[in-house]
Amino acid sequence: MDMTQVHEIAKRLVASHGSKAEAEAAQKLQEAESQADAAAAELWRRVRGALRDSKPPHES
Predict the structure, then answer these.
(1) DSSP H helical segments within the chain, as ranges?
(2) What pLDDT shows up at residue 55?
(3) Number of independent structural domains in the chain
(4) pTM (two decimals)
């Protein structure tokens, strides 16, 4: 899966879950790992990373 698809999934998660999008991706990752689905787990790791990268840095 290319990064364009990963970012599209991340964008859809934000649209449907708002600030809880990263938590949703983490839950999907945990489900994939518990089912020993390595491909799905890698996808959700990438989506979670994309969500983290898209957050604005915290201001002091």
Answers:
(1) 3-17, 21-34, 38-54
(2) 76
(3) 1
(4) 0.85
